[in-house]
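lol ok so funny story. i was supposed to be doing the assay writeup but got distracted and ended up predicting the structure for this chain instead. priorities right. anyway since i did it might as well share w the group, maybe its usefull for someone
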Amino acid sequence: HLAFFDMAYQGFATGDADRDAAALRAFVAGGKAPVVLSQSFAKNMGLYGERVGTFSIVGADAAERDRLLSQLKILVRPLYSNPPVHGARIAAEVLTQPELRQEWLGEVKTMADRIIGMRQALRARLEQLGSAQSWAHITDQIGMFCFTGLKPEQVDRLARDFHIYLTRDGRVSMAGISSSNVSYLAESIHAVTKD
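and the output, tada:
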């Protein structure tokens, strides 16, 4: 068995980077299976286009670590010779300097709280409009994206009639919702779901 974690939005789920890492830490502490972590800092550090992240493997002991590292080097070498370093240096500076780290964690919390607030506002407005559907899943989910439950035809109508664009599976970026457009979004969703 192998436990694989993809952590692209650490801190954006709950506003607490440590809390968002709880499941990962529980698996590592359990020690029953190797743990692999793919972690990106592109979104939670605003380093888009810099390809900043880590690929980590927690093995059983130092000997396994050495074997894994040897195999990873074989895999990585033909993929790139000189990986970009600018973003990695920024991330390292932020993560290793206590004052910068605290500032970054505060900014991540602010962003997460804003996303959580937009989820609450969207759900509340849909309910105020008298929607017969349950929208609890909007606030039950966490993170930057939300699966709305909209059907592809409803998504198409949102684009055609209201100029609101999301993936055809109904996934919307919560970061794109603001206090100035959440009512329009809710009213538009209500219009395409009330029939």
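The helical segments are 17-20, 22-30, 62-76, 86-96, 98-128, 136-140, 152-162, 182-193. The mean pLDDT is 93.
back to the writeup now i swear
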